[in-house]
DNA sequence: AAGAGGAACAACCGCGGACGG
DNA sequence: TCCGTCCGCGGTTGTTCCTCT
């Protein structure tokens, strides 16, 4: 299959184009328009193959090409579209007026891809890179105050099943990247073990519940709501002490994770972003309402959303969100949901799973290095 | 100031679908 | 239906520019 490269004929020039060649090509296309690329070079007096002419024209000489740095909105659009379309550069370029597929592809490979990798996000799947999440690193921030024992390492090993919940792991990654001080606010002296232990309890409880006859998701959500209400746990530091029921354990873990999420979602003060005050109780209630299966379902949304072109999807789990002002947001968001605040947007929704998803949904704007655009 | 290494970008290569004879 | 050609796409390479030491 395939065909022989057209440029292998003798006499065909390769390499960078000269201004004279550019002028010839532009003049010819202005006069005759785009047409048969194979015969064009001969007619235009160019010692190039038609393919080379076409690429030069479409990627560089076309008058409607917008050159220069990609705007933040363009970049966000690219990431959003890439999470849906994959490496369909031409399809992505079709939604970015003035940008060529080649330009977008190059920009992706040289800028965005590296940035996502730095953030621990797989640029192919747009999911957290589980292979890079070294759970032992969870202990490092606390190492100064707490030297891990063998039992702690066993605890970490027990956490392995959490890989089923990549978004929780992303949360852990975010915790790591946000550093000990933010965590220390809720965990004394920056110790992560309480959080880890609670996550482990959540995992065990989820397994225990899975062995029971699983009620419908809505019923499960109600159970968690009730459990959350039964637990008096505004005290985030001590709420993990002696939970007496499976539901309490789950609720406790969920609550602590919510608290951690609240902290992890607060961008550093020097980003220039303004974040509305977080309604922590409301957030915790949402997390309590979202059972493990819902979270898993939410996580799986990433792959399902990339397999269909459901314009109603909110891209939950993709790690990418888009301001409502962007072209993609106009495409994908049928509601008037605002994404500029973390807590308020979801507190009023009746869909608990979606609310939890929104809770964990990271703002791309904050994840990206905004200073590039300052 | 000069060289090395990395980043950025333009251009090339190979493949495969579409289409007409 | 088959075959050859055109065209476009995605991946890769090569060159230039920039930064750091």
Automatic annotation (TrEMBL):
Q: According to the UniProt entry, which residue ranges have a biased composition of type Low complexity?
A: 299-346
Whether Transcription regulation counts among this entry's keywords is: yes
GO biological process terms, semicolon-separated: regulation of lignin biosynthetic process
Q: Where in the cell is it found?
A: Nucleus
Please report a single Pfam family linked to this protein.
Answer: Myb_DNA-binding
Keywords tagged on the record? DNA-binding, Nucleus, Repeat, Transcription, Transcription regulation
The residues covered by the Myb-like domain are 9-61, 62-112
The residue ranges of the HTH myb-type domain are 9-65, 66-116
Per its record, what are the GO molecular function terms? DNA-binding transcription factor activity; transcription cis-regulatory region binding
Q: Taking the first listed entry, what is the main subcellular location of this protein, grouped into a coarse class?
A: nucleus
| UniProt entry tagged with the keyword RNA-binding | no
Pull one GO CC term from this UniProt entry: nucleus
Question: Where are the residues of the annotated region Disordered?
Answer: 297-346
What protein does this entry describe?
Uncharacterized protein
* Taxonomic source organism: Sorghum bicolor
């Amino acid at each position: 299959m395939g065909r022989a490269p057209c440029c292998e004929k003798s006499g065909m020039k390769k390499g960078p184009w000269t201004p004279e060649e550019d002028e010839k090509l532009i003049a010819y296309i202005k006069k005759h328009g785009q047409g048969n690329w194979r015969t064009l070079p001969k007619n235009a007096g160019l010692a190039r193959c038609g393919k080379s002419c076409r690429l030069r024209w479409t990627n560089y000489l076309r008058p409607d090409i917008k050159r220069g740095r990609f705007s933040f909105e363009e970049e966000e659009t690219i990431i959003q579209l890439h999470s849906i379309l994959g490496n369909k550069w031409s399809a992505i370029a079709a939604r970015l007026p003035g940008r060529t597929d080649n330009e977008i592809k190059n920009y992706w490979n040289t800028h965005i891809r590296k940035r996502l990798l730095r953030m621990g996000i797989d640029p192919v799947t747009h999911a957290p890179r589980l292979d890079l999440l070294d759970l032992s690193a969870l202990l490092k921030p606390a190492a100064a105050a707490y030297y891990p024992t063998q039992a702690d390492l066993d605890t970490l090993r027990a956490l392995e099943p959490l890989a089923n919940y990549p978004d929780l792991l992303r949360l852990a990654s975010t915790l790591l990247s946000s550093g000990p001080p933010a965590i220390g606010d809720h965990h004394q002296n920056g110790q992560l073990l309480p959080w880890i232990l609670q996550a482990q309890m959540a995992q065990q409880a989820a397994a225990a519940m899975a062995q029971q006859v699983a009620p419908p998701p809505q019923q499960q959500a109600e159970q968690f709501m009730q459990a959350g209400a039964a637990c008096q746990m505004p005290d985030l530091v001590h709420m993990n002490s002696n939970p007496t029921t499976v539901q309490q354990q789950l609720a406790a873990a969920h609550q602590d994770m919510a608290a951690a999420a609240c902290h992890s979602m607060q961008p550093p003060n020097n980003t220039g972003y303004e974040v509305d005050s977080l309604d922590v109780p409301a957030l915790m209630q949402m997390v309590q309402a979202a059972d493990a299966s819902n979270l898993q379902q939410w996580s799986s949304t990433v792959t399902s959303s990339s397999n269909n072109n459901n314009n109603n999807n909110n891209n939950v789990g993709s790690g990418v969100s888009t301001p409502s002002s962007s072209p993609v947001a106009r495409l994908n968001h049928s509601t008037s949901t605002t994404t500029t605040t973390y807590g308020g947007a979801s507190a009023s929704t009746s869909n608990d799973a979606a609310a939890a998803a929104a809770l964990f949904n990271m703002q791309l704007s904050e994840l990206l290095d905004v200073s590039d655009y300052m």
